[in-house]
Automatic annotation (TrEMBL):
Domain IspG C-terminal: 302-402
Protein name per its UniProtKB record: 4-hydroxy-3-methylbut-2-en-1-yl diphosphate synthase (flavodoxin)
Enzyme class: oxidoreductase
Family: Belongs to the IspG family.
């Protein structure tokens, strides 16, 4: 009964073999790593460098780029140089489908510039030569001392393997549900490919596995199974999660449950950006998921009540939003100037019902005046009421107090 536990928290982490991707440790007890993927044309060096830097500055600790054709493979070393010139060392992962073996063989500078290669076992090269093409990529990874992610995907599952398992299932005395067989094919696809890679000579500490599905319940089942059957480092992600709040909720539900069970060494939240929307949102959501669950701290948390009929004006929402935005914008600089600033808790509350109580739990908190209350906003620092703000400058004054608190 969890109510009888003195300490609330996740299950112990599933033990996995640690993999170094560039200078970032994945698995083996390392902090859960946030990663993301660009959506620029990789052949566009400048555009890709700019987006990688935006993602890295937001907190993406690994960045994946698609390497889909010769122009993209040729651009990869220039992207690496462009990042280096701007002082960015984030590890880069190349995403390969169909012709990865060819691109990596013909563009050795690309193979060298990347830190990890992602292979999809469902589409490694051409059907009857798949094994040799898979072997080619693995051998190039071994030669260049690079990590590999074997990433099975529900949408591009190895059809031969699926057909074989479906036939076996149809002839079985106790046939399983077709969806369960598909899940089994996902897990087997990842595990058999990993075993084959080890046979070729790629050590376990160079391999990360993933088996992405777009349905929350299937994803949970697939990853639980994958984790129970192996100790490879695990990349978690709900594929094709979707747009806006649907994508965020589905990803948080699926990944949250798995993380709580100790499963997952690196995560990507795959969101479809709104037209013209910012790609960095997926990094922000991944960080917030890990932080709200207590796995890591990235940026100060702003606790805010939802507001209700007791809030008198938009001042409350404006203050909460402006504090949140201010912190996000300043974080890249604060991180180096104020070590530990990410542990700060700020509370912005709408009235006296929960305001003073919540504010006292924060490092610094404010309770704005609600309907019918005296137009005064008490501010609490480290649990003590230190000041009461009044009038139209409440927002500016509180912001200044937050900065003052951080500086001290
Ligand atoms: Fe409403 Fe006050 Fe609760 Fe905020 S703290 S939701 S304003 S009752």
């Amino acid at each position: 009964n969890p109510l009888q536990n003195d300490i609330a928290g996740p299950a112990p982490r599933h033990r996995t073999t640690q993999v170094m991707v560039g200078n970032v440790a994945v698995g083996g007890g390392a902090p859960i790593v946030v990663q993301s993927m660009t959506n620029t044309d990789t052949a566009d060096v400048q555009g890709t460098v700019d987006q990688i830097i935006r993602l890295a500055n937001t907190g993406s600790e690994l960045v994946r780029i698609t390497v889909d054709r010769e122009e993209a493979a040729a651009a990869v070393p220039h992207i690496r140089d462009g990042l280096r010139k701007r002082g960015v060392t984030v590890p880069l992962i190349g995403d390969f489908h169909y012709i990865g073996h060819k691109l990596l063989a013909e563009y050795p500078a690309c193979a060298e510039a990347l830190d990890k290669y992602r292979i999809n076992p469902g589409n490694v090269g051409f059907k009857d030569k798949r094994d040799s093409q898979f072997a080619d990529i693995v051998e190039i990874a071994i030669k260049n001392n690079k990590a590999v992610r074997i990433g099975a995907n529900w949408g591009s599952l190895d059809q031969e393997l699926l057909t074989k398992l479906m036939e076996e299932n149809a002839n079985s005395a106790t046939p399983r549900d077709a969806r369960a067989v598909t899940r089994e094919a996902m897990v087997q696809s990842a595990l058999l490919s990993a075993a084959r890679a080890e046979e070729i000579g790629l050590p376990k500490n160079k391999m990360v596995l993933s088996a992405k599905v777009s349905s929350v319940q299937d994803l949970i089942a697939v990853y639980q199974d994958l984790a129970s059957r192996s100790d490879y480092a695990i990349h978690l992600g709900l594929t094709e999660a979707g747009m806006g709040s649907k994508g965020i909720v589905a990803s948080a539900a699926a990944l949250g449950i798995l993380l709580q069970q100790g499963i997952g060494d690196t995560i990507r939240i795959s969101l479809t950006p709104e037209p013209g929307g910012d790609r960095t949102l997926e990094v922000q959501v991944a960080q917030e998921l890990l932080q709200t669950m207590g796995f890591r701290t990235f940026v100060p948390l702003v606790a805010a009540c939802p507001g209700c009929g007791r809030t008198t004006s938009t001042t409350f929402q404006e203050l909460a939003r402006s504090i949140q935005d201010f912190i996000r914008t300043e974080m890249p600089e604060w991180r180096s100037r104020y070590p530990g600033v990410e542990n700060l808790h700020v509370a912005v509350m709408g009235c006296i019902v929960n305001g003073p109580g919540e504010s006292k739990h924060a490092n610094i908190g404010i309770s704005l005046p609600g309907t019918g209350e005296t137009p005064a906003a008490p501010v609490f620092v480290d649990g003590q009421k230190v000041k009461t703000l009044r009038g139209p400058t409440i927002a500016t004054e509180f912001k200044a107090m937050v900065i003052d608190y951080i500086e001290k």
